[in-house]
Write a structure and sequence with these properties.
The chain is about 30% helix and about 20% strand. The chain is an alpha+beta fold. It has 2 domains: about 60 residues, no CATH class; about 70 residues, 434 Repressor (Amino-terminal Domain), CATH 1.10.260.
Length: about 160
């Protein structure tokens, strides 16, 4: 059996550490209060074998402004024969903000880009879906430690 804290293979004792009951080795037992419980004897025949499941996070959608945003905005505005001031007033932004965006000195926020997209009918925002498939974990494995779960969380 492995210690739930450090993973060391040794004889384990039950202890309450930070409010949780865990099976720990004698070295890790000093971090909590050791308790003695009589565990009922269970025959191994009663255990049902469970296949390990692959855990998959929901895909994270990331919105990104396109690289050539300045040219796209300027060209679309000029096609509509609008001045920078007129565009700014139409989307409730400052004229200096539009000037800086069109010159490439300022990258618009997602909110501002959406307003410009809607008004000029152009595409400035691309969406990327980031899917992370996590490792296979058998939660019924007696050798599973907290450290194993932390590794999976960080993947």
């Amino acid at each position: 059996m492995q210690c739930d804290i450090c993973g060391r293979e040794s004889k384990l004792v039950d202890a309450i550490i930070e409010g949780s009951m865990v099976s720990v080795c004698n070295i890790c037992a000093k971090y909590g209060q050791v308790i003695t419980l009589e565990k009922p004897k269970i025959k191994e025949e009663k255990f049902v074998k469970v296949k390990s499941k692959s855990i998959q996070k929901n895909p994270e959608v990331i919105e990104v402004i396109v690289q050539d945003y300045a040219d796209k905005i300027k060209n679309a505005r000029e096609k509509l024969n609008l001045k920078q001031k007129e565009l700014a007033n139409s989307i409730a932004e400052r004229e200096s903000t539009i000037q800086n965006i069109e010159s490439g000195h300022l990258k618009p926020s997602i909110e501002t880009a959406k307003k410009i997209e809607q008004f000029l009918k152009i595409k400035l925002i691309e969406e990327y879906k980031e899917e992370k498939k996590l490792s296979n974990i058998n939660f019924r494995d007696e050798k599973l430690t907290i450290g194993d779960l932390l590794k999976v969380k960080n993947e």
